Amino acid sequence: MSEMLPGGGAPGRLLRYGDGPDQVAEYYPGTDPTALVLFVHGGFWRARYDRTHARPLAAALSEAGFAVLLPEYRRVGQPGGGWPGTLHDVATAVDELPAAVAPQLPLLVAGHSAGGHLALWAAARHHLPPDAPGARPAAQGIRGVLGLAPVADLASASRLGLGDGATDAFLGGSPADRPDRYAVADPTALPPPGTPVTVLHGLADDIVPTDVVRGYAADGRAEFVLLPGADHFGVITPGSEDWPHVVSALRKLADEAKGAEERQ
Question: How far is CA 235 from the centre of its chain?
Fold first, then answer.
């Protein structure tokens, strides 16, 4: 399958979390939402793939009972993109935007493909050493994580050469070249986030093979759901056969977050 991404959809209200042209996010408030979903788009961290292809997803989730933040971030091929700017941008968006738009709602972080990597990484940032990009001294308020065909194991993705070497371009080399970077950017190398994690992955995905996720989920840190017949893009295409699984997974995470709050 090609890397052609679906597109279209109207943008949400634009917010800023930095001074750069790509340090922005779109907000889709929804109607009586049960949770706020911060959705990180994919595209192998590269500049030619931006948030526009995820607008239909954001709009559909807002219609399904969620408020949605769709952040942009600096990407490989742009000034400051890749290591470490991409990580700094996603960390800042997660830390600042939810409190600015819907502090009363439980926060769910989701992402697709390379955006799935960034979502899983963002939830584990409190495990990073203090000098690592995006490090936090304590866990943030993420109440659940959904990875859609995520590049969850960067070392494996590098070894397989996914996206014509996209992982090495993102981190500036292979695990042998940049072991320090992989140690703090690879979700599989980090401890479990400590919050519920669900991963949905299509068995027919030929862009990010399922083996790139199996290693991440092997220790039980995530509920790993394989979707028979699903390709790489069905999980981000409203109206597809795979779309109900996405909405159901987010509703389950929202319900778990609400239950956890009631037990506190």
Answer: 13
Structure tokens at 218: 């092997």
Residue pair 126/139 in contact by the 8 Å Cβ criterion? yes
Q: Residue 191 pLDDT more than 60?
A: yes
Continuous segment of H or E residues that includes residue 246: helix 243-263
Tokens describing residue 210: 């399922």
Taking the CA atoms of 180, 184, 185 and 191 in sequence, report the sign of the dihedral they define.
positive
Where is 204: in which H helix or E strand? none
Q: Which two tokens stand for residue 165?
A: 């070497």
With a cut of 90, say whether residue 262 has pLDDT above it: no
Give per-residue pLDDT as tens, 2-20.
345 556 667 889 999 999 9
- Mean pLDDT of the 89-103 span: 97
**What pLDDT shows up at residue 165?**
98
pLDDT of residue 236: 98
State the Cα–Cα distance between residues 97 and 19, nearest whole angstrom.
14
- Tokens of residue 125, six digits: 């940032």
Among 2, 7, 5, 43, smallest CA distance to 22 is for 43
235, 237, 239, 229: which is closest to 199 by C-alpha? 235
Give yes or no for a contact between 214 and 207, defined as CB atoms under 8 angstroms apart. Answer: no
More confident residue, 67 or 263: 67
Q: What is the three-class DSSP state of 19?
A: coil
Distant-in-sequence, close-in-space partners of 211: CB < 8 Å, separation ≥ 6: 156
Nearest to 92 by CA among 22, 41, 144: 22
Start-to-end CA span in the chain (Å): 47
Tell whether the model's pLDDT for residue 1 goes beyond 60.
Answer: no
The distance of Cα 230 from the centroid of its chain, to the nearest Å, equals: 19
